[in-house]
Structure formats: structure tokens, C-alpha cells
Amino acid sequence: MELDQNRLIEMYRRLLRIRIFEETVVTLQSKGEFPGAAHTSIGQEGEIVGACMALRDDDYMIGNHRSHGHPIGKGADLRGLMAEVLGRKTGVDHGKGGSMHLADFKIGSLGETSIVGSGIPVAVGAALGSKMMGTDRVCLCFFGDGAANEGAFHEGLNLAAVWKLPAIFLCENNLYAATTPAALTLAVKDVATRAQAYNMPGVIVDGQDAVAVFGVVSEAVRRARTGQGPSLIEAKTYRYLEHAVGLAVARGAYRTDEEIAQWKKRDPIDIHRSALITNRVAGEQEVIEIEAQVRAEVEAAVQYARQSAFPDAAEAFDNVYSNPIPITR
Amino acid sequence: MREITFLQAIQEAQREEMRRDSHVFIMGEDLRTNLFGATGGFVQEFGLERILSTPLSENGFTGAAAGAAMVGMRPIVDYTIAPFMYCAMDQLVSIIAKSTYLYGGQAKLPLVLRAPMFYGRSTAAQHSDRPHPIFMTIPGLKIILPSNAYDMKGLLKTAVRDDDPVISFEDSTVWGHRCAVPEEEYLIPLGEADVKRTGSDVTVVAFGGMVPHALAAANELAAENISVEVVDPRSLVPLDKETILTSVKKTGRLVAVDMAHRTCSAASEILAIVAEEALWDLKAPLVRVTTPDTHIPFSPPMEKALFPNKDKIITAIRQTLE
Predict the structure, then answer these.
(1) Mean of all residue pLDDT scores within chain A
(2) Rounded to the nearest 5 degrees, what angle is found at the Cα of A37, between the Cα atoms of A12 and A14?
(3) A vs B: CB pairs below 8 A
(4) How far apart are CA A29 and CA A245, in angstroms?
(5) Which of A178, A185, A308, B28 lies 20 to 30 A from B296 at CA?
(6) How far apart, in whole angstroms, are the C-alpha atoms of residue A319 and residue A292?
(7) Which pLDDT band holds residue A328 (cuts at 50, 70, 90)?
């Protein structure tokens, strides 16, 4: 898959979609419209979009509680996502899942699961299913540095390697699991090192550079699709906001303002915008227009959500089963 | 009609469903050598691609089964022995029981999770679990717990074709029981109890390996003109409470037998349902016969004294007739 002009511009569009969606979510939460915790991906857009755009529309993707960016990166319609995080019946999960559990099976987003690490074995399974059904679909799994210490990570990678499955394990290492530094809990410096234990390639990439991530993930996708098995990729990235917006964490409790400021100098949106302009893929005016379009798109998604009804109370009993069995005797 | 054993019934059900639908496959430990007798000849017939011998990674391969199911396969996961499911609790509860719901119906998880239960054979505390009550309280799962070869085959085939996760707890104390099983295809729906013996004085609800003990108790008491009705729920989720209530309203007495530990047993749930919905029809207090709330010891005389048996059921029945 090439990154031609159109795809590079689409990349910018998706980076902006995530950023503006997330900033809007923060505002909606402060107004009390957004229920529950908001785990934002602001700062991580580069690795999300770079990875997602290396996938085909019919490839599978699984992610985690920091869930909004992943389906947006894979091309989901913003309206269904916004309606879901605002608890409406028109949401992708009909209000059942919410912010931590977005899913859009139509575009291969098989669900964002919020128990850390739990998506990894499921991704192994999607890859297994693909291989057994004889398709060439791959499955990409997003997880964080914290998940790299869960048993599920180790069991999952070993399984994928032993069965030579078309899986791509992408660790979004943003240096912290909530407030716990990876430096204090990871026995190795880089998560990618663990690939050796499972006999698969382990690659480190600058998560703030969407194009670089695209390149590395594309190679892993190529390996997977040609039957050469799984890969582990570690994207070094950073989240600007807290683990969940609104968490009462004192400034400097676990990271410094200087560190945050340092990372903001390598903002993934800025990096991609500069590259578009420098490489004459898009002009200044075009870039401004794209941003305006994305803002309008996000605003339309908010309006769609606000105009949608909340689910009826009785809907709490729907979808427990695919095949509910009525007892007739 | 020919007779087969409970274990043969499992094999036949799996074999027939594997032949019928190429999306069905089996994963578990030691399947290739047919260590426990449920996959004899399967590798030769279906190949290594559909009989996956797994590493000792219960949480990992349970999740893999879930993911494969989500994209269109129909896995049968064989846990070898029920307590190994505990290693996979996160995948069983957070993913398998909840994904259809969480994602608003976008995910379908047509899984069968087979968990043989060993007890009464000196396998000691960690290998003698009867964990069906733990899973009964988690929405999103279905549970079958048959007592004989005929029910086992019909229910397991239905379970494979069901689009939801079904746990099949297989009581190894009835592995060897033989009964008539048709060669022609038949299915038994989930949520339908079976009255194994009609009677009029007392209802005994029993399932799995408890049914032979209940029937033996009923036969012995028949000599004293005590007429015992034995109701076998066959599936615990969904539970056919109507058949149980109809029986209790007729007899006015209930003894619920469960091989699980007493607290929060399936028997407890059955007693609660009857107390709520048939209290005024009762002629006697409700009685549970269960394994007590202690661990299962290794030494045979200590162990054998703990599980429900014919004599304990007879004692319980007499209690309701006092």
C-alpha cells in the first residue's frame, strides 16, 4: 500500500479527527454531557493513524480503554462514535459500551476492551480465524506499556508465534500505566526487546511520526499477509492529558511539566502538517480548509448525538445473548 | 437400539458437528493423543489444522477462541479439567460473557467450552472442582450439565450450533454410563428439563452425576410406597424453572441435589426460585443435599464421605415427609 498524495492528506484528516474529537470530548465532559471517564489519545495520534492506515478496510483491529482514536484512525464514522460516548441509542454499541468499548465491526474494529491486556488473546484469535478461513486478513492489536506486563501479552505473543498467525502487536508506549512509570515496572528498557522471547521481529518506531509508523507497520502487515507470522512493534509516544480526564492527580505527582512541554514540541499533527507543506503535498490554504472541514464534521457528530434519544430502560436487557432462549414450558 | 457411553456420546457429537460444519474446530491440551477419550480418530479424519493442541496458556487460548468466534469460526474449547478454567477467568468473564452485550450486538460468540469435572477419585482440592455455580451468576453464558449419554449428545450438538457461548460441564462420574442413543440425528434444546421418573410425594431435582443417586434413592423408597419424582434440569442456564415449579406444586416437597459446595450452589438457586414462586404449595421445608463447604481431601475414605449419595438423598426425602 502506497502513501500517495491522497493518502498523505487523508492521514492528516484522520490525525485531526482524533485531535478535535478528543478536545471536544474534554469540553463535553467538563459540561457534564459526557458520562464516565474519558481516556484521551491526545498526543498519540501519530502512531494510531500511521498504524491504521497500513491496514486494509477489511483487516481487523482490536484496542483498549483509550479507545476513541483507534476506530477513528481506521475510518469509522464519527457520528456513531460520538453518539456512543454520549450514551445514545444511535451509538455504535447502542449505549451499551460507551467510551472505553467502542467497536465498529463494519470497518473491522472488533472492539476496544478495557481490561488491560485482554485484547491481545482476542486479536490472536481473529488472526487464527482469518488463517483458518483462508483469507489474507491480518489483525492489529493496540495495547500499552502496562499491558506488556500482563500474562495475556506473553501467552498471546507465544501463541501467535507458535501458530504463525497474521497478527501485529502494537505497543503504544506512552511511558506510564496510569501514574506508574514503565521505567519502574518493565524489566527491560524497551518492550520491543520481548519479541526475541517469542521469536518474532521487534521494532521500535517514533510514534509521533505517522509516516514512519506507517512504514514499520506496513512491513509487519506484509509479513503477516504473506504467511510469515506475527510482529511486535513498539511506538514511543506520549499522552498530554491524564490517564483519564478529571482524575485528581496533583501536578508533578508522577511526571514533570518540562517533560510534557518537551513532548509537545514533537506534536504528531504539527509534524505531519509541516511535512505536507514542505513536500508540497498540500498548501497552507488547503491545510486550513481540511481543519475547518474536520471541525465541522466533529460538530455535526455532536449535533447528531444530541438529537439522538437515550436508550429505553428495557434495552438494558438486549444483546446479553445473540440467541435468547425463551422458555416455553 | 444401540447403547453408547456418556464419553462416546461426547465423541459422536463432536465428530458429527465437525463433519457438518467446517467452521467448527477443537482446541485444547493433549487432543492429538486423545488423552481423555473425546477425540479418538479426530486428527486422522479432520487434520491438525482443525484439532489444535494448545500450549498451557488457558487465558491465551480462551481469548483466541473468542477472537476466532468473533470473525466467524465456531470453536470447541476443551479444558481437560474444570478448574483449569480459572486460569482463563478474564477472557471467560470480561470478553466471552460480555462482548455481545458491550458492543451492542455487533459481536457473535458461538463457542462451546467443555469442562470435565473430576471428583471422588483422589484428585484432591485443586483438581476436584465443580464450578458451575460460579458461572451461573454471570450473564451471557449458557450452561449444560447432562446426566446420561442420550442427553449429552443432543445437548452438545445443540450447544455447537448455538450462537452463544455454552459451557458444557461433563461429570466424569457418569462417563461410563450406557444408555440407548439413536444413530439418527437428534437435538435437545437448552432450557428444557426432563422428568427422569414420575412420582407424587416429593420432587427431587438432580443433575449430572447426581441423577443416578437420585434414581437409586427413588427406587429404594418405592418399596415403602414413597413416590419420588426426579426432575433433571439438563441445562442450568437457561434453567427450566416451569417444569420444576409444576412438579413441586404437584408434590409439595422439594429436595435439590447438587455436587457443588453448599453456599450459592445451583441447588440454592433452585430453592430460592421455589420459595419465591411456590411457597404456598409447600407441605414441608425445602432441603438441599450438597457437598459441604470444605475442600476436597486426598485420602479416599475422607473424600467419599463428602459428596451427595443415595443414602443422603433418602435422608433428605424422609426429612420432607416428617
Answers:
(1) 96
(2) 10
(3) 174
(4) 8
(5) B28
(6) 38
(7) low
The reply to whether B194-321 shares the fold of B3-180 is yes
Q: What is the grid cell recorded at B213?
A: 443417586
Residue B127 known to be catalytic:
yes
Who contacts B253 (Cβ-Cβ below 8 Å, separation ≥6)? B201, B202, B203, B282, B283, B284, B317, B320, B321
What is the tens place of the pLDDT at every residue in B190-231?
A: 999 999 999 999 999 999 999 999 999 999 999 999 999 999
- Look up cell 498523505; give the residue: A8
Give the pLDDT confidence of B105-144 residue by residue, as tens digits: 999 999 999 999 999 999 999 999 999 999 999 999 999 9
Any CB–CB contact under 8 A between B55 and chain A?
yes
Q: What is the pLDDT of residues A213-259, one digit of tens each?
A: 999 999 999 999 999 999 999 999 999 999 999 788 888 899 999 99
CATH 3.40.50.920 correct for B194-321:
yes
The CA distances from residue A220 to A140, B65, B191, in Å, are 10, 23, 47
pLDDT, tens digit (0-9, with 9 covering 90-100), for A149-168: 999 999 999 999 999 999 99
Q: Is B22 on the interface with A (CB under 8 A)?
A: no
What b/e string do you get for B21-44 counting C-beta neighbours within 10 Å, with b at 16 or more?
A: eebbbbbbbebeeeebebbeebbe
Determine which of B29, B61, B71, B94 to mutate to test the interface with A (most A C-beta atoms within 10 Å): B71
Averaged pLDDT for residues B8-29: 97
DSSP state of A196: G
For domain B3-180, the CATH class is alpha beta
Q: Which CATH architecture has domain A5-243+251-307?
A: 3-Layer(aba) Sandwich (3.40)
Q: What ranges do the domains of chain B cover?
A: 3-180, 194-321
pLDDT at A329: 47
Q: What pLDDT is stored for residue A326 in this prediction?
A: 73
d(C-alpha B52, C-alpha B65), whole Å: 11
Which CA distances in Å does A132 have to A27, A284, B13, B206? 45, 48, 22, 40
Residue A202 burial class via C-beta count within 10 angstroms: exposed 0-12, middle 13-18, buried 19 and up:
buried
What interface predicted TM-score (ipTM) does this complex get?
0.96
Distance, first Cα to last Cα, chain B: 43
Q: What is the DSSP letter of B29?
A: T
Number of alpha carbons in the 13 Å side-chain half-sphere of residue B268: 14
Strand partners, B264: none
Which residue out of A199, A319, A328 would a mutagenesis test of the B interface target, given it has the greatest number of B Cβ atoms within 10 Å?
A319
Residue B142 is inside which H or E element, if any?
Answer: strand B142-144
- Identify the CA nearest to A132 among candidates B179, B27, B68: B68
Among chain A residues, the shortest Cα distance to B237 is held by A325
Number of CB atoms found within 10 A of residue B59's CB: 26
Residue B103: the pLDDT is 98
- Can you tell me which residue has the cell 444413530? B183
Is residue B40 pLDDT above 90, yes or no? no
